[in-house]
Specification:
Strand content of chain A: under 5%
Number of helices of chain B: 12
Shape of chain A: flat
Strand order of the largest sheet of chain B: 1-2
Helix content of chain A: over 70%
Oligomer: heterotrimer
Radius of gyration of chain B: 27 Å
Order of helices and strands of chain B: HHEEHHHHHHHHHH
Structural class of chain A: mainly alpha
Structural class of chain B: mainly alpha
Largest sheet of chain A: 2 strands, antiparallel
Chains: A mainly alpha (305), B mainly alpha (323), C alpha/beta (267)
Amino acid sequence: MNAVVSRAEAAARNEPDALPIERQPWEARSLTSTFLSALVWVMAVIAAIPLFSVLYMLAVKGGSRLSWEALTSLPPAGFEMGGGFGNAIVGTIAMVGIAAGISVPVGILCAVFLSELGPESRTANAVRFAAKTLTGFPSILAGVFAYAMVVLLTGHYSAPAGGLALAVLMVPTVILTAEEAMRMVPKIMKDAAYGIGCTRTQVVLKVVLPTAMPGVLTGVMLAVARAAGETAPLLFTALFSSYWLYHEGEWAFGQPTASLAVLIFNFSGMPFENQIELAWAASLILVLLVLVVNLTSRFIAHRRV
Amino acid sequence: MSSAPAAELQGGSVSGPPSPFDYFFDRAFRGLAYAGAASILLLLALILYEIGGKALPGIREHGVALLVSSNWDVKAGEFGILPAIWGTLYSSLLALIIGGAFGVAMAIFLTQDFLPPRLAQVFRTIVELLAAIPSVVYGLWGIFVVIPVIRPVADWLHDKLAVIPFFSTSLAGPGMLPAAMVLAIMVLPTVAAVSQDALRLVPYKVKEAAYGLGTTRWEAILKVLLPAARNGIFGALVLGFGRALGETMALAMLVGNSNQVTLSLFAPANTLAALLALNFPEAGPKEIPVLMYAALVLLAITLLVNIAGSAIMVLAGRQGGAR
Amino acid sequence: MAAVLQEFHASSAIIDCKLERLFYSDFLAVRNSHVPIEKGKITGFIGPSGCGKSTVLRSLNRMNDLIAGFRFEGHVHFQGKDVYAKSVDPVVVRRYIGMVFQQPNPFSMNIYDNVAFGLRLNRFKGNLGERVEKALRSAALWDEVKDKLKKSGLSLSGGQQQRLCIARAVATEPTVLLMDEPCSALDPIATRRIEELMLELRKQYTIALVTHNMQQAIRVADVTAFFSVDISQGSRTGYLVEMGPTKQIFENPREDLTKQYVRGEFS
């Protein structure tokens, strides 16, 4: 090939062995490599475009409709003008709160079992397998499950039903990140706790959990961010509502409840400009909420002791 | 050794056994932890029981016919979820091809020193943010940005190349292609993250060996690095596929909810998840067992794919560390 | 092996360890070692690596219970009870027998909370601050940290962290203090400081110390127990070769094996 030919030429000219080690950018191999590098650059930029497009649309179309009214009033009916999604904000926070109230204690307790009480036992492996399986659980099926467990039993759609569906989606993330965080606590630190005469619970509550807390919190916040954005689990558990959660003098926890995600879904399909604008504004609020929680979780993760 | 007189400070051993409360609390807390663990197993069993149980009447009544029929007539009591099954698999496959390609490319881009570390972190953050955006927001964006943007391209393709089955219908609005494209955006972060891990697991000396033999950068990547990481990347693709299968909202808003089985990228279609999302709220007692049956089918498909993906990752992990 | 080991009779053994056999699953790790720990003295355990000296030390406060497959055949008498009796709770044993480990392992809390940990654990109702100061003084750390008690324990240097661990262990004034190669992760200067500290602590505490450094045993230990490895049965089983006053062990050992070890002929 090139090397052989050049050597031959060099020999013919009575030159000492001149090795052709200069760059040959136009040679087939180099060209291919350059082309592929350019391709991968282009692909990376293309992959980034949707994010910026979404953020742009949110800022422009959502931002233009964002107002005090939008944040505090109730959703408009078909041909109405104005209105907002205040109750949806409240509903989302309430249901994510219920979901966290269920999934965080259960998840952390389960993670304590997995990392401290029976790490290698058969039960632990079964539980880990179940948790991993549940991470890929389609969100709509969480809704179906909560529908079967709560709605059919109680006879009506409600916020707790929605909260349960979200909890099912949150729990695997909480368990797996909490277990990981607890495993990272150095064994010698646990030895010190045992050595000073702690019971097993005391080792967990006084040493392991406090030390693992940043990691555990990160997992919880990631789960919360995800749950806040979920729509499918709420579609037929909490349904939707045009009223406030505190309504006619009492808390309406046993009734259909509004949420940002369901509002966006419902309004996006309506042929009314007003509702579509509100859908964009609600999307902006929802994405801001999710991003804030996400960024907070990263901040916590970096503040390791 | 400097030491202030310690005589006046209090002394005496403080050691003593745990109090009865401490003992009780120890047992109680451990009991709670066992309960927490058991509840996860219980949850999984309950899910299978509830969905399976409520699906039984539907299975008994419609049997296998449900899986192969395309009718959906509530009044006549005729149901068929074949189009939904087809749509689920077709859309996920398309999303995997597009999202998977971009995801692997992104993983290579981020791990093979194409960028200074700061810039690489920026791109990594972009990918993580892509994953953080809620599905329903992607659906909204898809309706108002993606569909209008690809409509001219789709119309052109349909005009000139309608003979190819992929382009055989025109894009009226929602359809398979916009849905698959948005789904690809959601698959990309999963594939990119897992593939990055797989590529990082390949020992540096493998790449060193390739360079030492005089390969170009891309020859090293394509001929040595990717093959070494192939199990992990394959696992990433399977997990991405699983992610696509489980996705609901973006599809419900973009796929068109039409019960037909077609190869055309521009025709409206349906998926199991979208079917459930749109029909459940209004479903009457006749429909519910059928929908539960469909839910069971979706559950089975996603479980199988996710378990396969996890198994592959375990294998990949073992191989990666073995050398 | 067949030689009759003359047992060392301690004048007042506060812990009397009569180990017959110690297993990890099927592996016989240590055999036949009678190790009395004398009150008010520093007892050093020396021997080549793998001879079981750390294992025996950790058996005294039942720390080996944390290792799966651990089995102890024998008795460890402490304050009139056998520590391995079924009715004895290892958690209680560890409240009376404190431990300092090879790697400094402060909790990820501030210095004050580290030292106060044992006091709070035992529900101490008196003046916490006084006891914390007293413990830090006994560990020769008070002057260095008195102005930064709220700083994290992990922000200290290696030698300081180990003294913090010592302060933590003595805060509750346990009856015995076990120290498992406490200086092996430290530089020579920090090591020296801790050796001086041990001599001070001896005024109040009984100490059992594992060390791989013979010079340390000579400097610090009153009584020395020499362990070695028995490979005659095909596997490596540790056992006590000889035990006695440090001067005697190093200048005039009874056993040949001891003589060889203290002369540095093997390690």
